[in-house]
């Protein structure tokens, strides 16, 4: 991908709060895969994990019991403030910084993680930074999900959901194409790597939950800023109607489920 300036869409306190409310947590099985891969060539105890693009920190904290110290890095002060307020772990801290200039020493990190964030970065600069900060045998783990699948009485409304996603097309970044390919096209950082898909989490939901989730899209936030509140509200109403029609023309808010299918790419820095 070409070089790009750091995108500050998430530096918006209202979007940061919506994000906390409507975004999922990666499944514990995914975290275990990352840890197993890391432990293969790094001696225990694992010392430092750096979570880049940590946002409000919920995914950073998932590593607290596995490392001596976990550091979350984000470019957005608003996201970091939420992360610090939510943090109850004494070995987890947060610092402002960018993926392209990670504020840690050379060869000091066992694991660099990026949850739903690597597709925002200037990959050339980020991979160079990863190579600088990782210890030999250290690991880069990139994982995400591509939207969600609304489920109603066992029926998937994934295609309706993707239509909503696609209708915001001009507001998604070039990097979001990596989500569409489930990170299969993400450039290789190191030859030794692992690619896993279909690591899912499911939660209860209502139509309102899906609308809240759409409000947490960076593309929705950009559309609202460019076209105004009224256009954004009309977009939400149309999205609601599309989902209502798919569940069978009900005006109620029927109990539904939402599934997020995570994919994971892990790369190991050579020992020498
Ligand atoms: C989609 S959010 C993911 C947040 C968190 N990892 C999660 O899964 O909940 C992407 C985050 O990456 C951050 N970000 C985007 N570009 C960045 C960059 N170049 N350097 C550091 N953080 C960046 C944004 O501020 C945002 O908090």
From TrEMBL:
Domain Methyltransferase type stretches: 50-142
Keyword Metal-binding in annotation: no
InterPro entries per UniProt: Diverse_substrate_MTase, Methyltransf_11, SAM-dependent_MTases_sf
Keyword Transferase: yes
Pfam families in alphabetical order: Methyltransf_11 (PF08241)
Annotated CDD domains: AdoMet_MTases
Gene Ontology MF terms: S-adenosylmethionine-dependent methyltransferase activity
Keyword entries, A-Z: Methyltransferase, Transferase
Any single biological process term in GO: methylation
SUPFAM superfamilies in UniProt: S-adenosyl-L-methionine-dependent methyltransferases (SSF53335)
Superkingdom, natural source: Eukaryota
Family listed: Belongs to the methyltransferase superfamily.
Family annotation (PANTHER family): METHYLTRANSF_11 DOMAIN-CONTAINING PROTEIN, METHYLTRANSFERASE TYPE 11 DOMAIN-CONTAINING PROTEIN
Descriptive protein name: Methyltransferase type 11 domain-containing protein
């Amino acid at each position: 991908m070409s070089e790009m300036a750091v995108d500050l869409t998430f530096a918006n306190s209202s979007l940061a709060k919506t994000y906390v409310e409507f975004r999922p947590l990666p499944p514990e099985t995914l975290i275990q895969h990352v840890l197993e891969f890391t432990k293969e060539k790094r001696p225990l105890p694992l010392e430092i994990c750096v979570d880049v693009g940590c946002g409000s920190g919920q995914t950073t904290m998932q590593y607290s019991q596995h490392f001596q110290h976990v550091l979350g890095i984000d470019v957005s002060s608003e996201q970091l403030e939420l992360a610090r307020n939510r943090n109850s772990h004494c070995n987890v801290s947060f610092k402002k910084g960018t993926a392209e200039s990670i504020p840690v020493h050379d060869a000091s990190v066992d694991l660099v993680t990026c949850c739903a964030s690597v597709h925002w970065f200037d990959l050339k600069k980020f991979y160079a930074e990863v190579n600088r900060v990782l210890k030999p045998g250290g690991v880069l783990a990139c994982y995400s999900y591509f939207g969600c699948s609304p489920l109603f009485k066992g029926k998937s409304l994934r295609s309706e959901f993707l239509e909503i996603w696609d209708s915001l097309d001009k507001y998604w970044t070039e990097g979001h194409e990596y989500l569409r390919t489930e990170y299969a096209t993400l450039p290789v950082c190191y030859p030794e790597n692992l690619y896993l898909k279909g690591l899912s989490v499911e939660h209860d939901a209502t139509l309102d939950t899906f609308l809240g989730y759409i409000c947490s899209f960076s593309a929705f936030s950009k559309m609202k800023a460019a076209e105004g509140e009224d256009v954004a509200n009309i977009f939400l109403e149309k999205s609601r109607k599309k989902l209502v029609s798919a569940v069978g023309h009900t005006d109620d808010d029927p109990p539904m489920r939402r599934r997020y299918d995570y994919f994971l790419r892990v790369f190991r820095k050579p020992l020498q």
